[in-house]
User: Fold this.
Amino acid sequence: MADEIKKLKFKENTDLQIEVVSLQNLTKSKKELLVIPHRTNFYHIFLLENCQPTHLVDFEPIKIEPYSFLFINKDRVHQFDQLLNYEGKLIVFTEDFFCTTETDIKFLRSSILFNDLADQPTIKLDKSDFEKYISICENITEELLLPTDNAQHTLLKNLLHNFLLLAEREKRKKGFAEIKKSADLDYTLLFRDLLETNFTKLKAVNDYAQLIFISEKRLGQATSKILGKSPKEIITDRILLEAKRLLVHTNLSIKEIGQELGFEDPAYFVRYFKKNTETTPVEFRETYLKN
Assistant:
């Protein structure tokens, strides 16, 4: 293991940061890279055809059924099934590509497809419905092959947006309620964005409430309504997730991991981890790697 989790970035020197690739070709050409834990600065949409791999996303094994979608947010740590029995297409794109307005940012971050507000990253379709989405993939591929002009980015973005809107509709049909626009949602999304960039430095709820210009109580009302958790629970969950990632996917010492997460006292980090997981960092690492 290395001192940090493998990070993959979208192809450099690419103006249009969207791509559709064959999963069969990808798993053949990038096998060694895909089966190790890695994180990316781009979003994934898997269109999985007649295959049943188990994809691992942040310690959660996701069993795929034939003709399913799998959505993975940027910066998640995931790895492909060791057998690499993937068939279908993969759409990858960056936030910079899709988010040209504030409305785009809000749509992507509040979508029931990519984030854990719905806590269900897959959608199962029948074969005929699945083909409609394959057709959109083909349209994206065809557009990418054309000479670049001023309309290309907008056309590609619209194709992707249509894909996401149709997929959201499909997910709502299966019982996942749409998250209504509200101040509670806005506060929760802003809190999570701030947490993502500050969790190693800011660990008190009041720190985030002040940044959002609301009271701790108001922030608690928002997150409880949208996520069913208090801000403190969400902060703890984020710190523990990163701790577990570093314990399992790197060879950093417990002291080094504590320092990475903003704990100056290694003993306090160990107590914090054990209090919230009922196991020590060393026990967690040994148990996970043994299994």
Notes: The longest helix spans residues 152-173. The domain at 187-290 is CATH 1.10.10.60 (Arc Repressor Mutant, subunit A). The first strand starts at residue 6 and ends at 8.
